[in-house]
Amino acid sequence: MRLQQPVDINPPNSALARCIAETASGGALVWQGSTSEDQWLVVLPMDVQLVFVLAFTFVIHLVGTLAFAFRIAGVRTGQIAVAFSLFNILVLISRTANSFQGPLLAKRVETAIGSRLTASLDFDFLLILMMASVATLVGGLLIPTFQRLSSIAVSNFGQHRSLFRLICRSLTPRGVSILTESVSLPRYSSVAATSLGMKAPFSIILMNFFATALWTVGGLAAIYAGTLQPEFRVTSSSLSAVINGVATILLFTAVDPFLAGMTDDVVKGRETEARFRQVVVWMVLSRFAGTAVAPVLLWPAAHLIASISTWI
After folding, report:
1. What is d(CA 83, CA 133) in angstroms, rounded to the nearest whole number?
2. The whole model's pTM is what?
3. 87 burial class (0-12, 13-18, 19+ CB within 10 angstroms)?
4. What is the dihedral of CA 25, 27, 33, 36, to 10 degrees?
């Protein structure tokens, strides 16, 4: 539910007063109550709570996309284990964002249910899913930059074996200089050279697409299902595995093993780095497409969860 501010306007049929209230608030106007204490409630289009939820969503999906940059760094340096170990720093940030996003969004839904203004949540969830797509797109554009930075970080970590010293060195003038020099956007030639005709794993790309779409919408659908069956909203919020479980199976049994095997093949010289980069481009594109399709899956996924919550 968006932030509400009471506006003392009587009588309720005053058109002039309504216009003044709408102009002052920049939001929609809702009449609530039927007694002498009736008042207009101005529903603002945005509030701090929603901004935080959107920010946390951006971080979660940005980090998920940047994982490909650390795979490339591991291939270029030959130190795959170190690359993934350093990536765990970003994973920690992502999980922290996820631990705050869920409760904030759940509280938003609880407040909307209590105020009987659940219709306003549709736009909120749409914004959240759109932010997931934006974060994936930004992450894809940042892969060349983070691939260079992570390669440097992996090399330096191999010399000093201290994460604290690595962070301190990155904050020095030399570290800042390296950061600015590493900024780069994807080359058109790299994207244009990517084609399914060059033995791109279409089945893996398709599974990554479906897995990303389900994973993006799973947790949100479980919370949204609470608006469909308010009396079982606690049960619904714990049923995200109904959707995320399918995504997890696809990722852990097909997509991740393929990428891991290909990463090792490139390090051992059995596969080219150019081919690996082509696959990464397709993984990012399919991931973006999955987040773009997620809004379409929100309603059916939420209804499925809401139905299951009444059965069990």
Report:
1. 26
2. 0.79
3. buried
4. 20
